[in-house]
TrEMBL record:
PROSITE patterns: CB, TYR_RECOMBINASE. This is Integron integrase. Coiled coil: none annotated. GO terms for molecular function: DNA binding. The keyword DNA-binding applies. The lineage of its organism: Bacteria, Pseudomonadati, Pseudomonadota, Gammaproteobacteria, Methylococcales. Pfam families: Phage_int_SAM_4, Phage_integrase. Residues 109-325 form the Tyr recombinase domain. Transmembrane segments: none annotated. It comes from Methylobacter tundripaludum. It comes from the Bacteria. Belongs to the 'phage' integrase family. InterPro entries: CB, DNA_brk_join_enz, Integrase-like_cat_sf, Integrase_catalytic, Integrase_integron-type, Integrase_recombinase_N, Integrase_SAM-like_N, Tyrosine_recombinase_XerCD. Keywords: DNA integration, DNA recombination, DNA-binding.
Length: 330
C-alpha cells in the first residue's frame, strides 16, 4: 500500500515574526508596525533574505530613511527596533554588529503647553464633540492620562466615591493612581450607566467578551465577560478581533479623539500645534503652577525618573528663564 507523505512547508518569514510577537505578548499596534518595517527593509534590498544581509544593509536602509524619506529620529529608531527584533528574536542571530548600532539621538524639545485661557477655549469648542469623545478630552486634561490610557480605561478602575482613577499597565507596564475631577463625576456616572445598558445587550447577543492580556485571560477565563473588565469608553458598533476572529466591542478609536482635539484647537484659534498629548503636558504644567511639588506631579504622570518631570518647570519661569530683557530697562 502506497501512502502519500507531504513534508510540512516552513512558515514564511513574516508569519514567523507574527508568531514571535504574539508569543511575547506584544500589542497589535506593535505587531503591525514591526511587520511593516521588516517588509520595507526586505523590499528595499530587492527581497534578499535577512540572513544574507548584515550591518551594511541595515545602515543603508536607515540612511535611506533619513536622507530620502526624511523621517524623524524616533521613526528611524522604530525601524531599527523592528530589524533588531527580527534578527535577535526570530532568526536567533547573535551578531556583534547588532550591539554596536547607535540609535539616532532624539532632539530635546520643550513640550507644547497651552495657557489656561487656551484650554478653556479648546474645551468650549470640544463640547460640540459627540459623547464620549468630549468626556475623554476633558479627562485627558483633568487627569494627565495618555490617550491610550484613557480609551482603554476599564469600569473597575473608576471609583466615583473616592474620585480617583487607577491607570493600569501604563507606559513601562506600571500602574498608578490619579484624580477624577469633581466636575466630571456626573458625566462619568452617566457614561457608566449607558455602558451598563450596552453590556446587558451584549450579554443577550453573546458578544460580551472583551479583550484581556493573555496572562489574565488564562488565569481568569470568565473575566472577559464580567462588568468590571469592560471598557468605559466602548465603541458603539461591534468589530472583529484580528487575532481571535471573535466579534465584540472594542474601545473608542483613538483617532476620533485626535481629530476632535485638532478641530477644537483650530476652531478656537490656537496657533500652537495641539494634540491629545498636549493636554497631558498642560495638566502637568498647570499643576506645578498651582504650587504642587514636583514629586507629586511625577507620581500623577507615572514618570520613573523625576528628571523627566522636571522639563515642565520651564514654564514656571517668566519667559527667557526669568531674565528681564535689557530692552525693558530702557
Amino acid at each position: 500500500m502506497q501512502t502519500n507523505t507531504t513534508s510540512a512547508q516552513p512558515k514564511k518569514l513574516l508569519d514567523q515574526v507574527r508568531d514571535k510577537i504574539r508569543f511575547k505578548h506584544y500589542s497589535l499596534s506593535t505587531e503591525k508596525t514591526y511587520i511593516a518595517w521588516i517588509r520595507q527593509f526586505i523590499l528595499y534590498h530587492h527581497k534578499r533574505h535577512p540572513l544574507e544581509m548584515g550591518a551594511l544593509e541595515v545602515e543603508a536602509f536607515l540612511t535611506y530613511l533619513a536622507t530620502q524619506r526624511h523621517v524623524s529620529s524616533s521613526t528611524q529608531n522604530q525601524a531599527l527596533s523592528a530589524i533588531l527584533f527580527l534578527y535577535r528574536e526570530v532568526l536567533a542571530v547573535d551578531l556583534s554588529w547588532l550591539d554596536n548600532f547607535e540609535r539616532s539621538k532624539k532632539p530635546r524639545r520643550l513640550p507644547v503647553v497651552l495657557t489656561i485661557q487656551e484650554i478653556q477655549a479648546l474645551l468650549h469648542e470640544a463640547s460640540g464633540a459627540p459623547e464620549p469623545i468630549c468626556l475623554i478630552i476633558k479627562l485627558l486634561y483633568g487627569t494627565g492620562m495618555r490617550l491610550m490610557e484613557a480609551v482603554r480605561l476599564r469600569v473597575k478602575d473608576v471609583d466615583l466615591e473616592r474620585k480617583e482613577v487607577i491607570v493600569r499597565d501604563g507606559k513601562g507596564g506600571k500602574d498608578r493612581v490619579t484624580m477624577l475631577p469633581e466636575s466630571l463625576v456626573e458625566s462619568m456616572r452617566t457614561q457608566l450607566a449607558l455602558r451598563r445598558v450596552w453590556h446587558e445587550q451584549d450579554v443577550v447577543l453573546g458578544k460580551v467578551d472583551v479583550w484581556l492580556p493573555d496572562a489574565l485571560a488564562i488565569k481568569y477565563p470568565n473575566a472577559s465577560k464580567e462588568w468590571g473588565w469592560q471598557y468605559v469608553f466602548a465603541a458603539k458598533n461591534y468589530s472583529v478581533d484580528p487575532r481571535r476572529k471573535s466579534e465584540r466591542r472594542h474601545h473608542v478609536e483613538e483617532k476620533q479623539v485626535q481629530r476632535y482635539v485638532k478641530l477644537a484647537a483650530q476652531t478656537a484659534g490656537i496657533a500652537k500645534p495641539t494634540s491629545p498629548h498636549t493636554l497631558r503636558h498642560s495638566f502637568a504644567t498647570h499643576i506645578l503652577q498651582s504650587g504642587y511639588d514636583i514629586r507629586t506631579v511625577q507620581e500623577l504622570l507615572g514618570h520613573s525618573d523625576v528628571a523627566t518631570t522636571m522639563i515642565y518647570t520651564h514654564v514656571l519661569n517668566k519667559g527667557g528663564k526669568g531674565v528681564v530683557s535689557p530692552l525693558d530697562r530702557l
